[in-house]
Structure formats: structure tokens, C-alpha cells
Specification:
single chain; about 550 residues; alpha+beta; 2 domains; 20-stranded antiparallel sheet; 20 strands; about 30% helix
Length: about 550
């Protein structure tokens, strides 16, 4: 039961980190001005710890969030159910402006022979040390009385440690350290180590050069952040980092650019200056003129020919090969099943037959069709001297698969199509059978200005040609999302959550789980945009910008 309580506390902190992005009561501090405050609890955490998450705002401010006050109240009730603790009376008076949670180690006693038990630590800032001490004593005494468990009290380096031992050998330990923090852990060993880290500064996270380099990159006005030691995370989760792993740490931060947006920035740090120079530009958005506003998922950028040599490709390779067997390319195929289907249907290699000749600007759009299982697609490419030869290669592949090449006019616009004719027998009472010919379209393409446009069918091309101010480049939500993204950058990935969310959830089932866990958050989510920016040879920056509606 004590172990379950600790996990409830841990889950609560992570839940608050998510919901904190939807608050406006502290906008004057984190949007209008101020700078990022580094977590103070890093003095308790080892530099070898896998994960640390910090919320740098008093949770009470979440009560005035955009329609989430009821959810926070439910969370408080659930956290302290059956404990005899009254949140408003026992906790609120001393609660400070920081909650930090950490996985301190993958195995508390570092002995794999007796099983692995990770260490968990929660550090809660206190503004009234006397009241927080009263709370810790009250909390453990009420727990022991309610469950019949035994309490153990010890003094370690001048700090009083209280541990609650259940009949199943599960432990919950707590302490008040100085006049700054209340600590909870799942074992007194974790608390002792936390105290040692304070006294031996070279051991704690604050002294880590990787951590210091990471937090320097955190944008101003961030109100929450997480730091991940990637080799330690891999060990904790039982993953195996590739021998050529490029990135060894990561920092995630949350910022509120304005009332209806949340910015999540992730920075991956390389061990040394080994990253390829990122190809950044100021996208002209010309290719987006040919993507319909009905697109649910849009990707735009430049130079697909360099994709497999980019720092993004290095990141994907490391992630994919760490969490499962197989190469990053294999795992990418599993994730993007529609691409696999396209390659199999056409018998093409996307990297060699498509990406290799796209050196200019490009845009890809997936358009949901409620009546169809699979979305329609459109691919816009800025023409180059290599384009005619590339199309000829696609024509050759098409004819080798038995497809026909056809050209025709649609509203005075020349269209080329790859088609397959299929004869179908018509039921007839007469002795002589009759047949109908059906045309199956495998793809169409046409030229507009300096761009070649490929699409899954004629209807999609027709939608592009009859734009009539129906261009994705004029999508107001998209323009609002990319406004805070630094220029230059490596392009955008845009998801219309309302119309295109199912496209992604079908390929990433974990999103369905997250949608259930954070229902208030996803109910108000309208869209999200991803971008990578910066050209530093030691780090990779990826920003995710979420747009909300109805807060």
C-alpha cells in the first residue's frame, strides 16, 4: 500500500507537469517576462540518475487553470484517499514553488542477483519548514495507525528519517531536509544517498557538465523541465544503446508563448562535436500553396536527398535500435505502415527512387477521407534538373509492373496518370458474355509553375487545381503555430488533431492511452506542429508547438 502511495505521488507530479501547460494564472511570470529558474532539488540527485522532472510553480496555481480546476481537485482527493490527510489543512500552508521527481537509479542496492528495484525520489519545496515537519510526522503516524504497519525512525547526518514498513516489505520513507525541502522515497537508502549528494557536491546533478550545458539551452520563461541521462535510461528500461550512440542526454522544457499555445522544446546533446551540420533554411511555403486545407497531416521542408545523413536520422536510429531489435529503418517502416504499403504496391524504394532526387523544397499532405480506410496523399516537389529523369524512372517502374501511362487534359491542365485496366465480367442471361473495363489509378501528376505535383488520385489533383483560396499556406492555425518557431529551421510537421488525429493514433497506439489519461488536455487540443532548428554540432533542438481551443 505504501508503494502504491508513492507511485500515486509520482504519477501526480507527472500529471501536473502535463496539465501545467494549460494554466493562465501565472502567465505574467512565465509568458510576459522573467527567466527560467533552475530546479534547486538537483543537489539531492546523483549525476548518474536516469530521469529528473521538475515543476517550477506552486500546484495551487493549477486550480485556476482553463477549466481544469475540477480535475486537479479529483487528483488531490485520489492522492490522499484513505490517509486521513486533509490537503487544504495539512499541505497547502507549507507547499512551495517546486516539485521535483527523479528515478535515482535503476537498482537501489546495485545487486542484480536479488532483482532490480529502481530508486524513486520526490522533493517538494517548503515555504514553512515547521509546518512541513508537522505534516511528515502526522502523515506517517496516521499511515501506521490505519494499516498496522511499523515505523522506523533514524537520524542520518543530522536529518530525521521516517520509514513505514508494510507486511509485504514495501517501504515509504520521508524526511525534511533543512528548511527547504520535504523528501519522499521508496527506500531509506534513497534518502541517505540524497543527503550524501548534498554533502559531496561533486556527486550531484548540479555538478554535471552535461546537465549544465543542457539547462543553458532551456528557453527563457520555461516553467517546467525534465532531464534525461540517456545511457542510464536505457539501463533502467533494459534497452541496449547502439555502440555508435550519438546522443547521451536530453532536456525537455515547457513554455507558454501565449494564452492558447504550449511550446515543448526537446534538446538532445551529443557527447562531442560529431553531429552533421543541420541544413536549415527559411521555408518559402510555396510548396504549401498546393496542399489543400483539408489535409490532416502535412510535412514540409527542403532536400530530402540528405535525410538519411541528417542529425534527425541519427536520433531516430538511436531511439529505434535502443527500444527494440532491428535497425532504425526497419522500425521506421513499422511505424509508418502507409509508406510500407506504398512501396509494396509500387515496388519502389522511397530513399532511392523518390528522396534521392528531391533537393529543393517539398511538401507532403495526407487527406482523411471518412468513406475510405486509407487517406489520400499529395506530394509537391520543387523542380530541378534531376526531375525529368526521376519521372522517367517512375514511368519505367510503372510499365514494368504492367501499368499504363496516360495523358489527358483537365480544365486545360495536362495530367499524367499511371493506371491499370481490369476487365470485369457482367452477368448476362444470353449465351454471349459481356465485360466492362475498370480503370484503377495508381497515381497522377501534373506541373504547376516550378513544382511537380503527385497525388493518389484524380480527385485530389482536381482539389489542388481548383484552390480558390483553399491553400494550406493560408491556414490560420498553421501560421499561428509556426510563428514562434525560430528561423531558419529544417521544416515543419503539422497535425490537425481534430481532423487528422486518427491518422497518427492508428500508427501510434500509445497516443490512444495518453488521450485517456490526459483527457482534459486532449479534449482542448486543436493542432500541433513539430520543427527542428539550430545548426550546432553538439546538440539537436526539436520544438513541438501545441494549439488549444476553448480554454
Amino acid at each position: 500500500m505504501k508503494q502504491r502511495l508513492f507511485f500515486r505521488l509520482l504519477a501526480a507530479g507527472l500529471f501536473m507537469l502535463l496539465l501545467a501547460g494549460c494554466t493562465d494564472s501565472f502567465q505574467s511570470n512565465f509568458v510576459a517576462g522573467g527567466t527560467t529558474k533552475e530546479p534547486e532539488a538537483t543537489i539531492f540527485i546523483s549525476k548518474q540518475a536516469p530521469v529528473m522532472v521538475s515543476i517550477l510553480v506552486n500546484p495551487e496555481q493549477l486550480e485556476s487553470s482553463w477549466g481544469l480546476g475540477g480535475e486537479i481537485s479529483k487528483l488531490k482527493s485520489s492522492l490522499f484517499a484513505d490517509t486521513g490527510i486533509d490537503y487544504k489543512q495539512d499541505i497547502q500552508p507549507w507547499l512551495g514553488n517546486e516539485i521535483t521527481l527523479a528515478v535515482t537509479s535503476s537498482d537501489i542496492d546495485r545487486d542484480p542477483n536479488n532483482g532490480r528495484q529502481p530508486g524513486y525520489l520526490m522533493a517538494i519545496a517548503t515555504k514553512t519548514p515547521s509546518k512541513s515537519r508537522e505534516f511528515v510526522d502526522l502523515f506517517f503516524s496516521k499511515r501506521a495507525k490505519a494499516t498496522g504497519s511499523s515505523l522506523a525512525v533514524e537520524e542520518y547526518e543530522g536529518v530525521k528519517l521516517i520509514s513505514d514498513y508494510s507486511q509485504t516489505d514495501k517501504v515509504l520513507s520521508g524526511a525534511v531536509v533543512g528548511d527547504r525541502f520535504v523528501l519522499f522515497a521508496n527506500d531509506p537508502k534513497v534518502l541517505r544517498e540524497a543527503i550524501n549528494n548534498v554533502q559531496a557536491a561533486q556527486l550531484n546533478l548540479t555538478s554535471s557538465s552535461q546537465y549544465q550545458q543542457a539547462v543553458k539551452q532551456v528557453p527563457q520563461k520555461a516553467f517546467a523541465l525534465a532531464f534525461l541521462n540517456l545511457p542510464a535510461v536505457a539501463q533502467w528500461q533494459g534497452w541496449k544503446l547502439p555502440e555508435t550512440a550519438t546522443f547521451n542526454s536530453e532536456v525537455i522544457s515547457l513554455v507558454l508563448p501565449n494564452r492558447k499555445q504550449l511550446q515543448v522544446e526537446t534538446i538532445f546533446l551529443a557527447e562531442k562535436q560529431t553531429l552533421p551540420t543541420s541544413e536549415v533554411s527559411s521555408p518559402s511555403q510555396e510548396a504549401l500553396q498546393y496542399i489543400p486545407t483539408s489535409a490532416g497531416l502535412v510535412v514540409s521542408g527542403a532536400n530530402l536527398s540528405n535525410l538519411d545523413r541528417s542529425n534527425l536520422a541519427l536520433l531516430w536510429e538511436q531511439i529505434a535500435t535502443s527500444i527494440s531489435s532491428g535497425s532504425g529503418e526497419e522500425k521506421l517502416s513499422e511505424l509508418l505502415q502507409p509508406l510500407v504499403d506504398l512501396q509494396q504496391r509500387w515496388d519502389i524504394n522511397l530513399k532511392e527512387d523518390i528522396f534521392s532526387w528531391v533537393q529543393g523544397e517539398y511538401a507532403i499532405g495526407l487527406i482523411p477521407r471518412p468513406q475510405n480506410t486509407n487517406p489520400d496523399w499529395i506530394f509537391v516537389v520543387e523542380k530541378s534538373p534531376a526531375t525529368p529523369a526521376a519521372i522517367s524512372r517512375l514511368d519505367a517502374i510503372a510499365t514494368s509492373k504492367g501499368l499504363s501511362l496516360n495523358s489527358f487534359d483537365l480544365d486545360k491542365q495536362k495530367i499524367s496518370a499511371w493506371t491499370f485496366l481490369k476487365a470485369t465480367k457482367v452477368a448476362d442471361a444470353s449465351a454471349k458474355p459481356t465485360y466492362t473495363l475498370e480503370t484503377e489509378v495508381y497515381g497522377v501528376h501534373t506541373t504547376q509553375g516550378n513544382y511537380e505535383i503527385f497525388a493518389s488520385n484524380l480527385g485530389t489533383i482536381e482539389e489542388v487545381l481548383a484552390r480558390n483560396n483553399n491553400s494550406f499556406a493560408q491556414n490560420r492555425t498553421f501560421q499561428d503555430n509556426i510563428a514562434p518557431i525560430p528561423q531558419p529551421n529544417q521544416g515543419y510537421v503539422y497535425l490537425d488533431w481534430v481532423n487528422g488525429g486518427e491518422l497518427v493514433k492508428s500508427q501510434l497506439p500509445i497516443l490512444k492511452l495518453l488521450e485517456i489519461v490526459a483527457k482534459p488536455f486532449f479534449q482542448k487540443l486543436r493542432s500541433l506542429t513539430l520543427s527542428s532548428y539550430g545548426s550546432d554540432s553538439e546538440l539537436l533542438k526539436i520544438g513541438m508547438f501545441l494549439q488549444f481551443d476553448g480554454f
